[in-house]
Recover the amino acids of this structure.
């Protein structure tokens, strides 16, 4: 005679609901019969309770029926997952933050703040609100990044995308961490990436909005040292420099220490940036007419202007840039060499 | 961790290793869950219901046991029995156990004599 008992049914439900659908039916059936066997005929409530408590926590029982352990990210790739997660989230949050900060500079509120006046206090409140929205944008970005990284790893894990380690041999041993001179701290690479993005975006926005803050003031007039035409023409080069800087820092982050590929990349990067810089410096219309006029006024003679336009100043700056690049490339090469020697 | 608990834990670990062998040796004729549990208890094998029932399913999925549902009586019952493969593996496992028990006994005796 089939005994249905509410307590037993609830117990069975709690055990089977955590199991995959296919198994639920059979496990439930089998377990119900076993429980009823253990109870005998016409059990009273305390006997039922005793038997069920002897069987124990439904969650634990259910777990022991499972063939495979359950997890989102398997232990095998968990370390990799955590390190990727940390890196990506920090970068995304920082980039969101930078974009937000740049947008503050170009909000109406900030402009009003600069001009002072009665609207200044309202502007401060508005900026406070802006900062709030930046923080929430950073959080949003960080959460999204975390979600996609986690999803990516969970899916890769289940589709077997990650090659399971078959067997370990001595050749799998990691090399000793490079000598300190050759190591590139992660923090510095990440900071480099973030700052590159920030300043590039800032400069691009400034040029586009025609609001340069590095200006000279001639009484009431703000004078832009560089001509508008030159600045606009500079935009794609600026973007290119930004991208290259970002990638260069990304490469540093990826390798974490100076090695041959990174050293070569660094040389290429320096060569490219110096070339672009020198090329731009030699544009004839680089300096704005107002600026040149201003310099002439201030110095009271033609000499300063001549120095600027004749290219002497430009040549000096170019030499400085080239020297800087050469020092950079050589120091990187030295570090690479030292790192390899160990 | 108090000594008693620790000891109990170690004993449970020891016993866990012999569980499968004990189950296989008790199932020479087809049995269903509860009857197997009672048989094993009668033979002095200490095993809990919440250990045995999932274990039976696992042994079946490993091919050591076969099962058959008997819907004749008032309660539908799933009977387990040794499969052909199970029979072979049980024999091998049994002789392996005897060898191990022997080795263990020698080691322990040596240690006691010192």
């Amino acid at each position: 005679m089939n005994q249905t008992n509410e307590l037993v049914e609830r117990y069975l439900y709690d055990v089977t609901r955590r199991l995959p659908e296919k198994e639920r039916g059979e496990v439930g059936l089998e377990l119900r019969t076993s429980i009823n066997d253990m109870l005998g005929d016409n059990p009273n409530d305390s006997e039922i309770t005793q038997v069920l408590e002897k069987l124990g926590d439904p969650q634990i029982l259910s777990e022991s029926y499972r063939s495979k352990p359950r997890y989102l990210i398997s232990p095998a790739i968990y370390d990799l997952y955590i390190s990727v997660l940390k890196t990506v989230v920090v970068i995304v949050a920082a980039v969101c933050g930078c974009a937000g900060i740049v947008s503050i500079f170009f909000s109406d509120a900030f402009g009003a703040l600069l001009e002072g006046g009665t609207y200044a206090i309202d502007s401060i409140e508005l900026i406070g609100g802006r900062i709030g929205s930046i923080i929430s944008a950073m959080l949003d970005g960080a959460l999204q990044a975390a979600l996609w990284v986690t999803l990516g790893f969970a899916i890769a894990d289940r589709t077997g995308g990650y090659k399971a380690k078959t067997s370990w041999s001595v050749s799998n041993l990691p090399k000793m961490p490079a000598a300190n001179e050759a190591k590139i701290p992660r923090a510095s690479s990440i900071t480099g990436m973030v700052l590159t993005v920030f300043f590039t975006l800032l400069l691009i926005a400034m040029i586009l909005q025609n609001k340069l803050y590095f200006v000279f003031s001639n009484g009431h007039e703000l004078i832009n040292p560089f001509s508008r035409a030159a600045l606009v023409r500079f935009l794609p080069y600026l973007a290119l420099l930004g991208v290259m800087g970002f990638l260069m820092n990304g490469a540093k982050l990826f390798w974490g220490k100076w090695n041959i590929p990174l050293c070569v990349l660094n040389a290429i990067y320096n060569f490219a940036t110096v070339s672009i810089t020198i090329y731009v410096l030699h544009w004839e219309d680089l300096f704005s007419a107002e600026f040149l006029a201003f310099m002439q006024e201030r110095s009271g003679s033609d000499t300063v202007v001549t120095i600027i336009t004749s290219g002497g100043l430009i040549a000096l700056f170019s030499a400085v840039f080239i020297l800087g690049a050469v020092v950079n490339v050589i120091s990187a090469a030295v570090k690479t060499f030292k790192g390899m020697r160990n | 961790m108090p000594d008693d608990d620790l000891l109990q834990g170690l004993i449970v670990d020891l016993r866990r290793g012999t569980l499968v062998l004990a189950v296989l040796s008790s199932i020479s004729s087809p049995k269903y869950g509860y009857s197997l549990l009672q048989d094993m208890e009668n033979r002095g094998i200490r095993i809990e219901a919440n250990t045995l029932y999932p274990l039976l399913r696992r042994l079946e999925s490993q091919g050591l046991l076969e099962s058959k549902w008997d819907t004749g009586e008032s309660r539908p019952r799933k009977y387990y029995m040794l499969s052909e493969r199970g029979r072979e593996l049980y024999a091998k496992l049994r002789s392996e156990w005897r060898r191990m028990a022997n080795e263990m006994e020698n080691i322990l005796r040596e240690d006691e004599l010192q």
Notes: Residues 120-158 of chain A form the longest helix (39 residues). Chain A has 13 helices and two strands. Residues 72-160 of chain A form one domain. Chain A has a mean pLDDT of 81.
